[in-house]
Amino acid sequence: RGKMAARLSGGENRLVSLPLSRIRVIMKSSPEVSSINQDALFLTAKATELFVQYLATYSYKHGRGKEKNALTYSDLSHTAEECETFQFLADILPKKILASKYLKMLEKEKRDGELGEGDEDEEEDDEAVED
Q1: Where are the domains of the chain?
Q2: Contacts of 74 (CB under 8 A, 6+ apart)
Q3: For residue range 114-127, what is the model confidence (pLDDT) as tens digits?
Q4: Number of other CB atoms surrounding residue 74 within 10 Å
Q5: Considering only CA atoms, which of 82, 84, 63 is closest in space to residue 74?
Q6: pLDDT of residue 106
């Protein structure tokens, strides 16, 4: 075992806050992973912690969190939407909307889809007449 793995065995002096067993389960869920080195597990846990810390700090500084002295979900979702670095999280941290607004959006998409289908049929009919 490496030096990092040896440090992990001490329960009091934990160098990572995330549960290593959970991270191991997530890593093993990938079909390409057959075994996980203790150092790789530790480094993945530490990198994840640092990433979450960076995301939270950035969202707090650039959101409304300073006004409320709190980090909110909307701060995180705004960061995911607006900051290029975090845009890959936009699907995971979508902006919250009211259910009524969502239902209206779905209804509008359904109506637009039905109109679009009718338009396609007309174009196909026109082509058939020309041939």
Answers
A1: 20-114
A2: 63, 64, 95, 96
A3: 766 555 544 444 44
A4: 15
A5: 63
A6: 87
The label of the residue with tokens 């979702």 reads: 77
Superfamily of domain 20-114: Histone, subunit A (1.10.20.10)
At position 18, the amino acid (one-letter code) is: L
pTM for the model: 0.62
Q: For the chain, give the number of residues.
A: 131
Other beta carbons within 10 angstroms of residue 48's beta carbon come to 15
Structural Rg of the chain based on CA atoms: 24
Q: Which residue blocks in the chain are alpha helix, DSSP H?
A: 3-8, 20-28, 38-62, 65-68, 73-82, 99-130
Task: Reduce the DSSP state of residue 30 to 3 states and report it.
Answer: coil
Nearest to 5 by CA among 33, 64, 45: 45
Is the sign of the CA dihedral 85, 63, 58, 41 positive or negative?
Answer: negative
Alpha-carbon gap, residue 114 to 108, rounded angstroms: 10
Assign 123 to helix, strand or coil: helix
